[in-house]
Every structure is written in C-alpha cells, then in structure tokens.
Amino acid sequence: MIALALAIGLFAGAVRAQDQDTASRPVTVGVYESPPFVTRENGQYAGMAIELWESLEDKLGLTSTYQSYPSYRKLIEAVGSGEIDAAVTNLTITRQRAQSIAFTQPWYDSGLRIMTPSKGSGSFQNIIDGLSDSGHLTTFAWLLILALFATVIITLLDRRLDSEFPRRWREGLADNFFHTMSILTTGKTTHKNLFGWIGRIWSALWMVLGVAIIAYVTSSITSVMTTTSLTNQIHSLSDLSGKTVGVLGGSVGEDYVQNLGIRTQNYDTLDASIQGLLSGEVDALVGDAPVLEYFVHSRPGQPVRLVGAVFHPDKYGFGFPLQSELLRPVTLELLGLHERGDIHKLRVRYFGNTR
C-alpha cells in the first residue's frame, strides 16, 4: 500500500510539473507608439509589430503585458536594464544599440526619408517675409505715401482750377487717387489738362515715373520669389545644410542627421514633429521611411509631402536584454514566418504590394 501511494504521488507531481511547463509564460513587453507598427485603439495595442509579436506569442506560449515608453531612447534603456523582457516596435538594428541590447532576426527593411511642407517656398507669407528682409516693403510704403501726397496736391489744384471737379472731398480724393494709381500702374491718364504745355510735360514725366515704379515693383517681387524658391526648397539630403531638421528623440534619424553636422530639433512623437514642421519651427523632418509614408497615405489632407528617395537603408528587429532566454526561440520563429511568407503577407496588408 505504501508503495502504491508513493507511485500515485510521483505521478501527480509529474502531471503538475507538466502543466506548469505548458502554461503560458508571462512577459513584460515595452512598446513605443509608431503607426502603423504600434498603435493604441480603444485601450488596446495594435499595428504590424504587435500582430507579428502576438503570432510569436501563440507559438511560444507567452502572455504579454504591454508597457508604453515615450521615446526610442527610453525603450532601449528599459530593455537594456532588464526592466522589460522585450522591446516591440519599429526598432532599427544598429551597432551602437547592439552593444546594450540583443536583436532578433530582422523582419522589415527600412531606411530614412525627408518630409517637408507641401506649401513652402512660393507661399504668400514667405514672399512677404522676403520683401521685408530685403527692404523692399519699406520702399513700397514710401511709394504709397508719395502716391497719397500726389493725390492730395492734385485734388487741391483741381478744386481751385476746375469748376467741374466734384465738390465733396471724398469724391475728389477718390477720383484723383484712382488717377494717380492708373498712371503708376499703366502709364496712362485721362485727367483733364489744366496747365497747357507745362501740364503736358508734367504728365509725361509722371508717366515715366510710373513706368519706373512698376518696373521696380515687378523686378523686386520676382527676385524675392526666385531667391525664396532657391533658398527654401528641399529636394534631397544635400539641401538640408543650414536648415533646422525635426527628428524623433533617440531615433536613428537623429543620430544620422547630427553626424552630418545639421541642426536638429527633437520631438517625442510624430504628431508633435508634424506640428513643428507646419508651424515653421523646423524646415524639414527626417524619419523612418515607412512611418512617414504611412502618415502621408493615411492623412491626405495634411499639407506635407515626401521628397527624395529612401537613404541610409536599415532593418527592424525586436529587442531583448543581453543573454535573454527568449532571443533564440523568437528568432527561430521569425525565420519560420519569413520562410512561410507570413511576414510578407502582413506587410502587404499594411503597406500594399509596393516592394
């Protein structure tokens, strides 16, 4: 009887051990919200990276608790210190990051790209700013004062010498202001000559002055528009020199742009960087190509555009603490998903069959 009871106890212990082995293993997963890879909808995380991770969960028997971080830098610090078990987002694999955390097999080919306002160099405000900076607005103001002064002088003379001239001041001033601006803008006049041959000479000189003023105004606006276009337009990486570029803090884009010696402005989120771009705080944004492309595609009403080709190609992977026991099994499962085409199908669902 004693032997039978001992056998039953050993069998029950083995069953309990087996149940524990097959039970889901809890893991803490750090995320950084970066659509379309990680998004938060109705309190739940979603996106391409989340879907990919959850397919790995099912195969490895894991149960994830998600913890959000405000930047790539904070996320990498958390996984490097062992605060979390894994980092799941569009995390670029770099040599510097690989010194503090371990990366899985790459699961997405990426790179950097440039975003600029779609209404930039030719906007009315930019032209006004250019005219002001070059001193032309001050000259325009003096020319307007001259036109108003001439209007008053001509009105005083007409009221004294022309019996048919309107007696009301507002009508007389309006008539002569139109006359003055007509000469300045077209070089033509239909005003009655009250001074004979002397009046003809003065009218001719006034028309010559008007032609000169129109030539000056036209040339100054044209030159400012040309200069503004050449100065402000950004078409490629080489055009960023001397500009202020918005980047996400702790991102590969930040490191890359700073290494080029270009001035940067850091932002915690893509939406904040877009606002900085539209408000003129920065001249352009440099960020992960798929993230910027998804933003432009999903929000067609935003006055932004992508310029140039993808540069600085890189790859995304999931991050783990160094020596993590999860690194090898997750990498093996990712390889299997690649071979079966599951990752390709997932990418096509989010980005279309564009690559």
What's the gist of this structure?
This protein is α/β, with parallel strands linked by helices. Helix content is 52%, strand content 19%.
General description of the model:
The chain has helices spanning 2-22, 48-60, 72-80, 124-133, 136-161, 169-186, 196-232, 252-259, 270-278, 289-298, 327-340, 342-351; strands at residues 25-31, 39-41, 44-46, 62-68, 86-88, 101-103, 108-117, 244-248, 263-267, 284-288, 304-316, 319-321. The radius of gyration is 35 Å and the shape is rod-shaped. The relative contact order is 0.17. It is 52% helix and 19% strand. The strands form four sheets. It has a five-stranded mixed sheet with strand order 9-8-10-7-11, sandwiched between helices. Strands 4-1-5 form a three-stranded parallel sheet, with helices on both faces. Strands 2-3 form a two-stranded antiparallel ribbon. It is of the alpha/beta class and 355 residues long. It is built from twelve helices and twelve strands. The chain has three domains: 2-107 and 317-351, D-Maltodextrin-Binding Protein, domain 2 (3-Layer(aba) Sandwich); 124-232; 235-312, 3-Layer(aba) Sandwich (D-Maltodextrin-Binding Protein, domain 2). It holds the Pfam family Lig_chan.
The name of the CATH architecture of the largest domain is 3-Layer(aba) Sandwich
Number of helices: 12
Structural class by SSE content: alpha/beta
User: Helical percent range?
Assistant: 40-55%
Uncertain regions spanning at least 5 consecutive residues: 1-22
Task: Please compute the radius of gyration using only Cα atoms.
Answer: 35 Å
Coarse shape? rod-shaped
Distance N to C terminus = 71 Å
At the first level of CATH, what is the class of the largest domain? Answer: Alpha Beta
By CATH, the topology of the largest domain is D-Maltodextrin-Binding Protein, domain 2
- Total domain modules: 3
Q: What is the CATH homology-level superfamily of the largest domain?
A: Periplasmic binding protein-like II
Largest sheet: 5 strands, mixed
Q: How are the strands of the biggest sheet laid out side by side?
A: 9-8-10-7-11
What's the pLDDT, averaged over the residues?
83
Q: Beta-sheet strand percentage?
A: 15-25%
- Topology order in helix (H) and strand (E) letters: HEEEHEHEEEHHHHEHEHEHEEHH
Count all strands and give the number: 12
GO molecular function: ligand-gated monoatomic ion channel activity
Subcellular location: Membrane
Membrane topology: Multi-pass membrane protein
Keywords: Glycoprotein, Ion channel, Ion transport, Membrane, Receptor, Signal, Transmembrane, Transmembrane helix, Transport
